[in-house]
Task: inverse folding
């Protein structure tokens, strides 16, 4: 019980940066990549500055790969001869060292990452950025950091996605798995979209209690990051932030991928179809004809519905 | 189904018993680490035993029969059997509804030779948790009646449509049961109706419980301690294979529009173009109708327009089952599970770090785990996390080669 007083609230922020070279802003003006990166690095450093025990990790993704650009594996190794005790001293005079280290590490890792993309260049123009993959990495990482935290440390983890891509349909299942895992582990997922309204990611924000924001112009990116996404979720209630978007939760049928209001669901595998068919295309179950579908039990009906 | 399970029932339990021997042998101060590792290995083993692509009973209807007899006041579980059971059941309810989104659960309590239905089959976990909390404060008295409880569960389960999966889970602290008639007749009835009955014993093996689970294709286990108890409950979270008696059908369902903002949005944030109205779920509990339930936010039945504040729900006006698309998506991982990773010797592993969590492999790691599809190497923690929680391989989703 004495631990209550010593309990330290800390925050791990994992930023997923979309580095797909076909994002419009990168195609139009490749130099803007540095502008976006500098904003992300500033956000990361501001987050570290808020509390000495705050942590940050950055994951990059494009159409061919997703990879960590910065995590605790890249942290500055303690100098030999310096014991654990002296880290507190190092922090007071070593803040700038840490910030500079983060910047150089991220930039170096991005260079390697982008070169990888060049070498495995993709013919398919429409292939999507592997954001869902980056998120699975982030969740594994958060899972570990959470296990390694010291007693009395209350670690809140959250995700921030920065993307200028549309779509996400091809990774639908992975996205859903990520959303539910994050929700289960109380990880808030925020999205800062540079260009599109993203239906799927909006669902993710809604499920995890995060914010979705499509910024009106890239120039103001850093301001948006610092005003909207730097504050921790509990503080946000007190701020004036963009209202939550309307999220469409209707189902898409497995047969045509169209959104439907009423559909048929396979009782064995829960696949959704827009019309009755005698066999389930997902699990090959043969169904009884629709006449026998009515439940035997009728619940008490409520009259006077108006 | 019964024949499939035969002989398997004890595998997990014996594996666990062996772990205690292993812990006793190992007394060089590494105890805690090794216990954790052993439990994780047991988990891995359980995952490996999972058969993919079996037909599952996804629309589950489960009755929990909870012993509230005098035997539950025993203090071999801390603080008492009753309180410990209630605590663990709360966790179970949450997991159950998380993994079985369009399933239902009911609760029956037995004490003083009687059975009492304390919670009808319903699809909202919050209600169940409240009721379990109430039960944990209630009395424990007399003898339980297994037969009365089973008959009560059966009387409700037999009314369900043919595609429903029917199950009973008995948590039994008592070693005796007070039954008015021959319980074997009840067991045969349950079997005929395809009700799968599992029993978790808190004390010692009871013949009639073994008989019950064996005949109906359920699992029977006796707990070793509270951790084991928890694991046994979690085993019941996975949807069971579809019973042979179970029909397969296409069920007509409605997917209501999410009428405003988040589910928890209150009246004040409701948009003004929607008329204010009560939701159907709070119409009958008049005392609970307060201003917070009057609002524009809610889910509208696409067939008749009735409003509900929570999903999933069966429309009270037209009978249509209303769900949201993510509700269904929540259980797709049962159908498309990540293949088990290959256990490889640490010496064969060339990677310095786990692909998932970026942890450095150290000498203590005897094994590493390799995804057969993407060949990435993971640590034991990530292996468990990916298969138990995440249900997507980070390696496979992180590289376009695997799409
Ligand atoms: Zn269709
Ligand atoms: Zn199916
Ligand atoms: Zn209706
Ligand atoms: Zn790992
Ligand atoms: Zn893989």
Result:
């Amino acid at each position: 019980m004495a631990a209550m007083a010593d309990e330290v609230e800390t925050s791990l922020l994992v930023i997923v940066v979309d580095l797909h070279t076909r994002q419009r802003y990168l195609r139009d003006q490749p130099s803007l990549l540095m502008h976006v990166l500098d904003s992300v690095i500033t956000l990361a450093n501001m987050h570290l500055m808020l509390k000495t025990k705050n942590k940050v990790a950055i994951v990059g993704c494009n159409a061919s790969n997703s990879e960590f650009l910065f995590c605790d594996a890249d942290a500055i190794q303690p100098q030999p001869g310096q014991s654990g005790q002296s880290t507190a001293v190092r922090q007071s005079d070593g803040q700038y060292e840490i910030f500079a280290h983060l910047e150089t590490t991220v930039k170096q890792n991005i260079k390697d990452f982008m070169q990888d993309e060049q070498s495995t260049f993709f013919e398919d123009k429409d292939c999507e950025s592997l954001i869902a993959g980056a998120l699975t990495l982030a969740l594994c990482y958060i899972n570990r950091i959470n296990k390694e935290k010291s007693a009395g440390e209350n670690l809140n983890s959250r995700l921030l996605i920065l993307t200028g891509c549309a779509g996400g349909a091809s990774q639908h299942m992975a996205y859903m798995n990520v959303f539910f895992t994050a929700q289960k582990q109380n990880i808030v997922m925020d999205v800062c979209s540079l260009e599109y309204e993203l239906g799927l990611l909006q669902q993710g924000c809604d499920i995890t209690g995060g914010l979705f924001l499509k910024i009106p112009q890239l120039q103001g990116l850093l301001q948006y990051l610092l005003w909207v996404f730097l504050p921790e979720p509990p503080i946000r209630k007190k701020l004036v932030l963009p209202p939550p978007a309307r999220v469409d939760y209707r189902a898409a049928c497995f047969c045509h991928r169209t959104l439907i209001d009423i559909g048929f669901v396979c009782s064995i595998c829960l696949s959704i179809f827009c019309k009755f068919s005698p066999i389930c295309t997902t699990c090959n179950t043969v169904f009884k004809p629709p006449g026998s579908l009515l439940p035997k039990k009728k619940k008490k009906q409520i009259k006077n519905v108006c | 189904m019964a024949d499939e399970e035969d002989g398997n029932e004890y595998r997990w339990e014996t594996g666990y018993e062996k772990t205690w021997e292993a812990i006793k042998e190992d007394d060089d101060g590494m105890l805690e680490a090794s216990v954790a590792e052993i439990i994780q290995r047991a988990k891995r083993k359980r995952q490996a035993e999972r058969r993919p692509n079996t037909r599952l009973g996804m629309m589950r209807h489960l009755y929990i029969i909870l012993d509230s007899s005098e035997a539950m006041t025993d203090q071999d579980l801390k603080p008492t059997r009753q309180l410990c059971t209630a605590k663990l059941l709360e966790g179970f309810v949450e997991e159950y509804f998380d993994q079985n989104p369009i399933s239902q659960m009911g609760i029956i309590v037995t004490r003083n030779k009687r059975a009492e239905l304390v919670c009808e089959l319903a699809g909202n976990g919050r209600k169940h948790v409240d009721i379990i909390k109430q039960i944990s404060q209630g009395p424990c008295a007399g003898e339980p009646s297994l037969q009365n409880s089973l008959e009560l569960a059966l009387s409700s389960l037999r009314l369900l449509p043919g595609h429903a999966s029917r199950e009973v889970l008995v948590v039994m602290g008592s070693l005796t049961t007070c039954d008015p008639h021959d319980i074997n007749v009840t067991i045969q009835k349950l079997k005929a109706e395809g009700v799968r009955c599992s029993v978790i014993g808190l004390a010692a093996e009871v013949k009639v419980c073994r008989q019950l689970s064996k005949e109906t294709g359920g699992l029977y286990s006796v707990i070793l301690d509270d951790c084991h108890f928890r694991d046994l409950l979690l085993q019941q979270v996975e949807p069971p294979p579809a019973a042979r008696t179970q029909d397969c059908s296409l069920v007509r369902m409605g997917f209501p529009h999410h009428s405003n903002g988040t589910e928890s949005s209150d009246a004040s944030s409701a948009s003004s173009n929607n008329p204010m109205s009560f939701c159907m779920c709070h119409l009958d509990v008049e005392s609970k109708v307060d201003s917070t339930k009057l609002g524009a936010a809610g889910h509208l039945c696409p067939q008749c327009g009735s409003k509900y504040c929570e999903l999933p729900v069966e429309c009270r006006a037209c009978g249509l089952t209303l769900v949201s698309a993510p509700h269904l998506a929540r259980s797709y991982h049962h159908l498309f599970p990540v293949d088990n990773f290959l256990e490889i010797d640490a010496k064969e592993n060339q990677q310095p770090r786990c692909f998932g969590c970026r942890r450095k492999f150290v000498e203590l790691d005897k094994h590493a785990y390799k995804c057969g599809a993407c060949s990435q190497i993971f640590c034991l923690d990530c292996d468990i996390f990916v298969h138990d929680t995440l249900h997507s391989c980070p390696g496979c989703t992180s590289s376009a080669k695997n799409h």
In short: Confidence is low (pLDDT under 50) at residues 1-32, 261-274, 285-293 of chain B. Chain B has 13 helices and 14 strands.
